[in-house]
Structure formats: structure tokens, C-alpha cells
């Protein structure tokens, strides 16, 4: 538990003078302290309307019930702070860090959380800094008409929050909990909602054009009147509840780089005929699973392992199966039209290319009668792969070896 300190005398003085300024009392002085240090302090109920505190550090502070209307908080740091019931209406929070900040029942009407442009002294150039609300607690918060373009809100909790008429262009809400949230009229074009929980959300007039809705169960939300042109979302029947729960945890695992949730392990399960169309199953394990007639069209299957799985008549149209493993799998009469089964670059911990690649594997797989028309197949060793009757018309077979038909 963070130990919050009583503000030192100099901080109490400037807060008192600012409160007098707001009230119009003699001796009042507007608080203008860019880069001010307020970390780990107890500032509950502080009156900071119209204060200028760009780049200020409020990390780990307690500011429950504080008033910060119209405050200049450009690129301020509130990481791990408690802002329960804070009022930030029309505040400038461009590029702010609100990672894991508690904002339950906060008021953020018309707040500006768009990217901020920060100057780099060494190069005299600017860089874009996106607002960070990853893991923030926004349950019951009021964000009507807020500007959240390109903000990162991965694995945040915003149950019952209102984003009515807010701008959320290209926002990252992967793994977020938006159960019961009000998204009426929200502009969410190109948003990332992989694995988000939208159960009971109000979405009338919501613009989700081009959004990524992989692993989102849309059967628990009314999408009538929602714009979904160009969006990627599931259209097949809902999966069994147990599998839906596994997908949610897998989405959380992806969104947090493995820090939370768990990798989907569906090995040995009977999932014949199930629809995983447009799902995100990157790096999932389906070893020896029975997936006859299953639909993986347009799915994300990078590094997914189907070792010795039964995939007769399974559909992989338009799927991205880069670096996946189908060794020993039964893929007779499976369909791969327009799929991308390429090599994948390996990156190091600094997100830099290592120059190494992982290519898909089909060692000992059976592709008898498979439809591979127009598929992209790269760097695959087909030695020992059964391709009797397979249709490879128009397939891209760059750097493939061991090909034989018959």
C-alpha cells in the first residue's frame, strides 16, 4: 500500500493562494508550476481549477474529490494515483500518463486526452506522446464528449462509464471491460477492441468503422444502428461459454504481453464445427484437438500450434497463419483461399528485428484434396507432406521446398 504524505508547507501555501485566487479573495495567486512535484501526497479535495501544471508529477498521490476543471495538465503523470470522483471537466490532459489510475465516478466531460507533441531538447524535434490509461479504473466515470483519440486504454475497467458522443478514433481498448458502458454516438473508427467486454453496452449510433473486434462476443450487445463497415468482427454462432471465457483470458494475455490472463490451451478438445472466424488466437495451443469443419476464416493465427490436430474440411480463408505449426495435422479437404501462411520476423525485447524468422511447419501433415487456391505460402518444407489432389492454382509458393504432387 502506498504511503501518502501530508503536503509540505510550500505546497500548502501555493494551494491556499490558488484557492483564494479562485474565490476572488485578496492575496490570491493562480497556481502556475509546470513540472511541479506532487507525487505521493495527500491532496484529497484540492481546488485546482484553471491551474497550470503541465508535466507535473502526481504519481501515487491521493486526489479523491479534487477539482481540476479546465486545468492545464499537458503530459502530467498520474500513474497509480487515486482520482476517485475527481472533476476534470474540459481539462487539458493531452499525452498524460494515467496508467493504473483510479478514476471511479470521476467527471471528465469534454476532457482532452488526445496525443501531445513534446519537444526533444537534444534534437530540437518533436515526438507524439499518446495519453496512457492502461489498466485505469474508470467504472462509473463520466466521459461524455471527451477527446480520447489514439489514447491507450488497454485492460482498463470502464463498467457503466459514459462515453456518449466521445471521440475515440484509433483508441486501444484491447481487453477493456466496457460492460454496461454508454457508447451512444461514440466515434470509434479504427479502434482496437480485441477481447473487450461489451456486455450490455449502449451502442446506438456508435461508429465502429474499421474497428478490430476480434474475440468480442457481440451476442451480448445490441448492435442495431452501429456502423461496422470495414470492421473485423465475429459473425458465426457464439462459442461454448467455457471457450468464450478462455478467449477472454487469452485476449488479456495478448494485451498485456503475458503479464495477465493466460494463453489459450484448447489441446485435446472436441471443437468440431466451431466458428473461430475473425478470432485472435495468436500463439494459442490446439494440440491434437478435434476441429473437423471448424471455421478459422479471417482469424489471427500467428504462431498458433495445431500439432496433430484433426482439421478435416476446416476453413482458413483469409486467415493470417504466419509462423504457425501444423505438423502431423490432418488437413484433408481443408480450404485456404487467400490465406497468408508466411514467415514471421522475430523481435528482441527492445522491439528490434533480430534478422531471424519463423516459418510455418507442415511436417507430416495431410493436405489431401485441400483447396489452396490463391494462398500465400512462404518458406515451407513440403517434404513428407501429402498433397494428393490438392489445388494450388494461383498460390504464392515463394521459397517453398520439397513440393511434389500425386
UniProtKB/TrEMBL annotation:
<protein>
    <submittedName>
        <fullName>Pentapeptide repeat-containing protein</fullName>
    </submittedName>
</protein>
<dbReference type="InterPro" id="IPR001646">
    <property type="entry name" value="5peptide_repeat"/>
</dbReference>
<dbReference type="Pfam" id="PF00805">
    <property type="entry name" value="Pentapeptide"/>
</dbReference>
<dbReference type="Pfam" id="PF13599">
    <property type="entry name" value="Pentapeptide_4"/>
</dbReference>
<dbReference type="InterPro" id="IPR051082">
    <property type="entry name" value="Pentapeptide-BTB/POZ_domain"/>
</dbReference>
Amino acid at each position: 500500500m502506498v504511503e501518502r504524505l501530508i503536503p509540505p508547507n510550500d505546497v500548502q501555501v501555493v494551494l491556499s493562494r490558488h484557492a483564494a485566487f479562485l474565490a476572488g479573495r485578496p492575496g490570491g495567486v493562480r497556481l502556475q508550476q509546470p513540472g511541479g512535484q506532487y507525487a505521493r501526497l495527500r491532496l484529497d479535495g484540492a481546488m485546482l481549477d484553471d491551474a497550470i501544471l503541465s508535466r507535473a508529477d502526481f504519481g501515487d498521490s491521493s486526489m479523491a474529490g479534487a477539482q481540476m476543471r479546465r486545468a492545464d495538465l499537458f503530459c502530467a503523470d498520474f500513474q497509480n494515483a487515486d482520482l476517485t470522483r475527481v472533476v476534470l471537466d474540459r481539462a487539458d490532459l493531452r499525452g498524460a500518463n494515467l496508467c493504473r489510475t483510479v478514476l471511479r465516478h470521476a467527471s471528465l466531460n469534454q476532457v482532452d486526452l488526445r496525443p501531445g507533441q513534446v519537444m526533444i531538447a537534444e534534437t530540437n524535434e518533436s515526438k507524439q506522446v499518446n495519453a496512457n490509461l492502461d489498466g485505469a479504473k474508470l467504472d462509473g466515470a463520466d466521459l461524455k464528449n471527451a477527446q480520447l483519440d489514439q489514447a491507450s486504454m488497454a485492460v482498463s475497467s470502464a463498467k457503466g462509464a459514459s462515453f456518449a458522443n466521445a471521440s475515440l478514433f484509433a483508441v486501444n481498448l484491447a481487453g477493456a471491460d466496457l460492460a454496461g458502458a454508454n457508447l451512444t454516438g461514440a466515434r470509434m473508427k479504427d479502434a482496437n477492441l480485441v477481447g473487450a467486454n461489451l456486455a450490455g453496452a449502449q451502442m446506438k449510433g456508435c461508429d465502429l468503422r474499421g474497428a478490430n473486434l476480434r474475440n468480442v462476443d457481440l451476442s451480448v450487445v445490441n448492435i442495431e444502428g452501429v456502423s461496422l463497415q470495414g470492421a473485423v468482427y465475429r459473425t458465426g454462432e457464439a462459442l461454448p461459454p467455457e471457450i468464450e471465457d478462455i478467449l477472454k483470458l487469452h485476449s488479456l494475455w495478448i494485451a498485456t504481453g503475458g503479464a495477465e490472463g493466460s494463453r489459450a490451451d484448447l489441446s485435446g478438445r472436441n471443437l468440431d464445427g466451431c466458428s473461430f472466424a475473425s478470432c485472435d488466437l495468436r500463439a494459442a495451443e490446439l494440440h491434437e484437438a478435434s476441429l473437423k469443419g471448424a471455421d478459422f476464416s479471417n482469424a489471427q493465427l500467428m504462431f498458433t500450434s495445431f500439432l496433430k490436430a484433426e482439421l478435416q474440411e476446416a476453413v482458413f480463408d483469409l486467415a493470417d497463419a504466419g509462423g504457425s505449426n501444423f505438423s502431423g495435422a490432418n488437413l484433408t479437404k481443408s480450404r485456404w483461399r487467400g490465406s497468408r501462411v508466411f514467415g514471421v520476423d522475430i523481435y528482441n525485447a527492445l522491439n528490434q528485428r533480430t534478422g531471424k524468422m519463423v516459418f510455418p511447419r507442415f511436417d507430416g501433415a495431410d493436405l489431401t484434396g485441400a483447396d489452396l487456391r490463391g494462398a500465400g505460402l512462404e518458406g515451407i518444407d513440403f517434404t513428407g507432406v501429402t498433397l494428393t489432389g490438392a489445388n494450388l492454382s494461383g498460390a504464392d509458393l515463394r521459397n517453398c521446398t520439397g513440393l511434389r504432387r500425386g
